[in-house]
Amino acid sequence: MRVIINIDGGSRGNPGPAGAGVVIKSADDGTILHEAGVFIGRATNNVAEYNGLLEGLKRAADLGAAEVEVLSDSELMVMQMIGRYRVKNAGLKPLFEEANALVTEFKKFEIRHVRREQNKQADAMANRAMDLKRTIEN
């Protein structure tokens, strides 16, 4: 199975109350397979983005996906994951390492940067989790 995962993370205050949004769709027909907003607590924007990636990869594995394409509006995270930027922040290194370990479980992994406008559903889920101060799943 091939899936497309839209992820987003946000923080109000940076650091501040933070959340991540994840929307997993079938690459075949666009059917939503999983949608969640994860409340993280106090964190930075970049930590929230990585938490969205981790949640998306874990859920895709749970769904039995063999191939994943991740779409994110975080240029920093995408460039770090493809090896163009180094991970300098000590707080991001363990998240980056965990994401790279999860990626090896898939037959095929791609990640690419998209404009904010192309990531509205994941953004809405992240904001909903921050508003409610709890994790939600649809």
Describe the structure.
- By secondary structure, the chain is α/β, with parallel strands linked by helices.
- Helices cover 36% and strands 34% of the residues.
- The protein contains four helices and six strands; from the N terminus they run βββαβααβαβ.
- It has helices at residues 45-62, 75-81, 93-103, 120-132, and strands spanning 2-11, 16-26, 32-43, 67-72, 108-113, 136-137.
- The protein has a six-stranded mixed sheet with strand order 5-4-1-2-3-6.
- A hairpin with a 5-residue loop joins strand 2 (16-26) and strand 3.
- Helix 1 (45-62) runs parallel beside helix 3.
- The mean pLDDT is 97.
Radius of gyration: 14 Å
Low-confidence stretches: none
Find the count of extended strands (DSSP E, 2+ residues).
Answer: 6
Helix content: 25-40%
CATH fold-level name: Nucleotidyltransferase, domain 5
Order of helices and strands: EEEHEHHEHE
Tally the structural domains.
Answer: 1
Structural class: alpha/beta
Summarize the structure.
It is built from four helices and six strands; from the N terminus they run E-E-E-H-E-H-H-E-H-E. The chain has 138 residues and is an alpha/beta fold.
Question: Main traits of this protein?
Answer:
alpha/beta, six-stranded mixed sheet, Nucleotidyltransferase, domain 5, about 140 residues, 6 strands
Architecture blueprint of SSEs:
Layout: E1 2-11, E2 16-26, E3 32-43, H1 45-62, E4 67-72, H2 75-81, H3 93-103, E5 108-113, H4 120-132, E6 136-137
Parallel strand pairs: 1-4, 4-5
Antiparallel strand pairs: 1-2, 2-3, 3-6
